Amino acid sequence: MEEDPRLGVSCLCLTYGRPHLLEEAIKSFLLQDWDGPKELIVLNDHVQQELVFEHPEVLVVNLKRRLRSQGEKRNLSVALARYDNLLVWDDDDIFLPWRISETMKRLPSDQFFKCPNAWVMNNGVMNNGVITEFGFNLFHSSSAYTRWLFEKANGYRPITQGEDADIEGRFKALGHRQDTILPRERVYYIYRWAHGSYHGTGRELKDINPIIQPGTVVLRPHWRQDYAEAARKVALA
Q1: 200 inside domain
Q2: How confident is the model at residue 72 (pLDDT cuts 50, 70, 90)?
Q3: Residue, of 217 and 203, whose pLDDT is higher
Q4: Which of 185, 43, 169 is nearest to 112 (CA)?
Q5: Average pLDDT score, the chain
Q6: CA–CA distance, 97 with 72 (Å, rounded to integer)
Q7: Terminal CA-to-CA distance of the chain, rounded, Å?
Q8: 96-154 pLDDT, tens per residue?
Q9: Is there a contact between 181 and 115 (Cβ–Cβ < 8 Å)?
Q10: Mean pLDDT, residues 170-174 taken together
Q11: For residue 187, what are the domain limits?
Q12: 197-226: string of b/e by CB count within 10 Å (b at 16+)?
């Protein structure tokens, strides 16, 4: 019997030349407490770097050419997704183990859901690894939407800057944007700033000289610290 795509979750992870951060994003997925069907789509368009990771719930797609824009890359990740509940899962951030389960309490009926508050880390750690800053921003990587709404909005526009704010604006215009501030102990997203790499697509590399390893990279998902425990301690302080 085929799975009902309306019941599962597809997490959409775009990546480009920074496997050291991607490994933590994959680990975030593997630690999720959601017991329903799920998958992580890892979409890599760095043509000189082939990423390898074998897991029944993780699909790594290595493209042979660079996509023209971030919007087109996001659209392709949706096209590859098996399920109809779509969660943005950026490769340079951390998602706590209750991210999917907290989202799925609201997403199927709302068509779009996002907790607009997040924990923020600067330079990879804060106060010796304790997350201490509570922030508000667009945080598109904290968002989720259904395939129905994505198609109704005609997907992302083929642009690299602002494609996230653009589609959220169209979701709102359609009457389906729902932002819900969660209790501090249930905030599920850690936004990392100044993590020694670039943000977004890597198209802004003119001011940065990252060390990008060419060839095949075997991914070894791990967290550098217990982010969930750090978040719990600060939330309850």
Answers
A1: no
A2: very high
A3: 217
A4: 169
A5: 88
A6: 29
A7: 48
A8: 999 999 999 989 888 999 998 889 887 655 444 556 667 778 899 999 999 999 999 99
A9: yes
A10: 93
A11: 9-195+219-235
A12: bbeebbeeeeeeeeebeeeebebebeeeee
DSSP output for 9-75 = EEEEEEE-S-HHHHHHHHHHHHT----S-EEEEEEE--TTEEEE--BTTEEEEE-SS--S-HHHHHH
In a domain, 4, yes or no: no
Q: Output 145 or 6, whichever has higher pLDDT.
A: 145
| CATH code, domain carrying 173 | 3.90.550.10
What pLDDT, on a 0 to 100 scale, did the predictor assign at position 198? 54
